[in-house]
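Treating backbone geometry as a discrete language has practical consequences that deserve illustration. Part of our work consisted of pairing the sequence of a single chain with a tokenised description of its backbone. What the numbers capture is local backbone geometry rather than side-chain detail. For completeness, the protein is quoted in full, as a sequence line and a line of structure tokens:
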Amino acid sequence: MSEAVRRAKPPIRAARRLSRRWIIVGVAAICLFLFADFLIASFPYNDSLSRLLAPYQLKLVYQEQHLSLPIGVELDRVDLFSTAEKPDHLLMQTNAVFLAPVITSLILGRPRLRVDARLYGGSVHTTVRQAADVVNTVFQLEGVSLAESQPLRQFGMLLDGQLSGAGSANLSDGDLTTDNGDARIVGANVTLEITRGFPRIRLGAVSGHLELAGGIVTLDDIETHGGDVEGKADGEIQLAPNLAASTITARVYLTPTASGRDHFGILFNMLPHPPAEGPYYLSGPLASPSIK
């Protein structure tokens, strides 16, 4: 055998050994991935979600659970109920919710989930963490339809348009007085119908900041542009266990636009004073406050 042939054999054997190692590593990685998927698919989502929601008198019900690649599960036909009243009151419905636990939660036994859902024509993305008796959430809404929102309908006012926003909240054992959070909201093409049969008021683009502390939602820099009125509002909403029983104290500035004067001139004349004379003060039940 020639010297050249002998010198060529070691590199070939080394390449084969390296190739076998990569094959073994690849097979091991696939096995670990499949095992992780098995753990995630069999993760007790129903029990974990029940423990998270129960202190807030909420209950999640879904029809089916199946694997969603690459990692996670999909819950089909999901309903969120309030258990504060009997029978349970439906708050939200969605066709699909995608969940993926953070891997450390499988080891430590403390629920920590990423949640993505299609909601009222838009989407919501949330990370939920539990530490002791506090649930920490970071959330983002994109293009949620106000007209389809079940919770808003109980206040009697009909809203339309799309809502987006982002924020965070710390929720502790279902007690509103110890919960806190904040959110920035942006609305597009928003309209308001005060009561059925009443002409819709175009609010246009809506933006503002909401802050929750001590059972009170503070309204800050709430503004509307491009509709029937140019508006600005600030104030507080005192939350009640039954949201419809919440009360509001707020100051509202209104400047009618040309379209607003054309469509709602009579309505503006029915207000306690002309909009140009200063703000209006709202107080009382959120569903039917008095105005001064």
